[in-house]
Amino acid sequence: MAHLTKLTDTYTLNNGVEIPIVGFGTWQTPDGDVARDSVAAAIAAGYRHIDTAAAYGNEDSVGAGIRQSGVKRDELFVTTKLWNGEHGYDATHKAIDASLTKLGLDYVDLYLIHWPNPVAFRDRWEATNAETWRAMEEILKAGKARAIGVSNFRPKHLDALAKTATVQPAVNQIFLNPSDLQPEVVAYNKAHNILSEAYSPLGTGKIFDVPALAKIAARYHKTVAQIVLRWSLQHDFLPLPKSVHAARIQENAQLFDFELSFHDMEQIDALRGVAGEALDPDLATF
Predict the structure, then answer these.
(1) Of the residues 11, 47, 56, 107, which is catalytic?
(2) DSSP string covering 46-93
(3) d(CA 34, CA 86)
(4) Which of 2, 9, 95, 137 is deepest in the core (most CB within 10 A)?
(5) What is the widest separation between alpha-carbon atoms in the chain?
(6) 111 carries an active-site annotation
């Protein structure tokens, strides 16, 4: 584990771009004042990495929150994602332009394919991903994104992409928390120098009901959220916690004045299944 001291410390992606080690997630954050104000609150709390997606339906408000923060664009790292109906070469180019317009930005720092195998392209997902990725590479070259990557991809999807890709994905954003470490995917990412980003790092809230985590948190005088986010960092993951409450947003950023012991890391690793597991992208119904 790298020596981590603050929220703005960075990992270096495989193309040399630096990415802050904790991101502020906006999945399920309602469009409008809630999304705008929570993004502004996160930036005020020290976050410099904001994660959204076309599918979240809140890119307009995320962009408004960024502007409300008053922090310069080049001090922020912004991610958005390509949604399932927009796969394919032309549609991908149109989708990034639509996202940039909604966000009110000239570029994003990271652009991801949200899912590898949408229902609409299930009979030809591999060929469609190849065309989508060709467009992603052009988006990168044009400066509309500083890095490109994927989300919810398994090794078979990454192997298929590698057949035609000339740029390797920088990131694979996956469901990753003590309930599902996705060891096969994480090992693949690591072997190919792809950063594992953890969405739902708190297990969509179910993690708070796990007695073993409450005991560990009490011992460290920390919250369960802080314990689980620290666990994620000590695994060299990049967690994307989300909250719409200013106090919780600040609390989730306070991860650097303690370190989990090897024993506690092992105990947390053994919690598989306590708060749900990753959806199989080949069986997803969207």
Answers:
(1) 56
(2) T--EEE--GGGT-HHHHHHHHHHH---GGG-EEEEEE-GGG-SHHHHH
(3) 27
(4) 95
(5) 54
(6) no
